[in-house]
Specification:
By secondary structure, the chain is mostly helical. 52% of the residues lie in helices and 7% in strands. The longest helix has 21 residues, at 63-83.
Length: 112
């Protein structure tokens, strides 16, 4: 299978992924629980195959990779809307409503 075909398949597989559910992510209601929430979230991100958003220097090299990254980012933004219940978390989500593009870097949420 060609690399381009693999990415198209990866994008299609990601879209169809029934095991991926935002309810699998714990809510963060108190900043005091940040470390536990971060650890749990990063583990779930990896289990859901969304590791691309944990790499701050990841750059897509073609349209298919860009489409896959966009699908991952849309899913994770939806997760963050539902899980970040602290005032700082809500600030991050609302500050980037227009783009809805989250990235995780070293366990820190960056919405770019």
């Amino acid at each position: 299978m060609s690399p381009a075909r693999q990415w198209k398949s990866a994008t299609a597989d990601f879209r169809k992924g029934s095991k991926r559910d935002k309810s699998h992510y714990r809510e963060l209601k108190d900043e005091a629980h940040w470390d536990d929430w971060k650890c749990s979230t990063l583990a779930t991100v990896a289990a859901h195959g969304c590791e691309l958003i944990m790499d701050p220097v990841y750059k897509t090299t073609n349209q298919d990779e860009l489409e896959l990254l966009f699908e991952v980012q849309k899913f994770m933004y939806n997760v963050f809307i539902g899980t970040l219940k602290t005032s700082m978390g809500q600030h991050f989500v609302h500050a980037h409503e227009a783009t809805g593009i989250p990235r995780l870097f070293g366990g820190t949420i960056l919405l770019i």
